Amino acid sequence: MFYKDERLALFIDGSNLYAAAKALGFDIDYKLLRQEFMRRGKLLRAFYYTALLENDEYSPIRPLVDWLNYNGFTMVTKPAKEYTDSMGRRKVKGNMDIELAVDAMELAPRVDHIVLFSGDGDFRPLVESLQRQGVRVSVVSTIRSQPPMISDDLRRQADNFIELDELKDVIGRPPREPMPEREQKLQAQG
């Protein structure tokens, strides 16, 4: 479903892609991901969307964000909002859907094909609008996790559905072992 001469743009919903890959038991190697889509067409932009906790001493996503920023990805971030829910639990909210949708709509006249890395059904109207503008849209997510990480509506709307599990050998790497909490604290202080 890819043509070598088409202008491509990647739109990565960071938390959604992370959760899908984790559910499938692997981590994404973003260097390999970018190389794979450069091979499939003329990659104009690779956007990565994530919310960041600004007040934490050490954010586990910060090294990834910095690496992506220096390695050909356009980073779109905003501060996450912290709140306490009605049960007294600390929650973090950082939805990037609007930012992703606006950027995709702005870039639509300059691309032939958009690859959306998300299974979020909220993106169905965006995909439909992009298609009306003549842009082909592929969605990367998974139906192989329990429960599936892609909304059925989004999958039906997309021109092409790419099963993330089938990209595992091309863009995946084994998951990193989580660091013991004591070592995380020491590393954050160091």
UniProtKB/TrEMBL annotation:
Pfam families reported in the protein's UniProt record: NYN
Positions of region (Disordered): 171-190
Limits of the NYN domain: 7-165
Annotated InterPro entries: LabA (IPR047140), NYN (IPR021139)
GO molecular function terms listed in the Swiss-Prot or TrEMBL record: RNA nuclease activity
Protein's UniProt name: NYN domain-containing protein
Species this chain originates from: Tateyamaria omphalii
Lineage of the organism: Bacteria, Pseudomonadati, Pseudomonadota, Alphaproteobacteria, Rhodobacterales
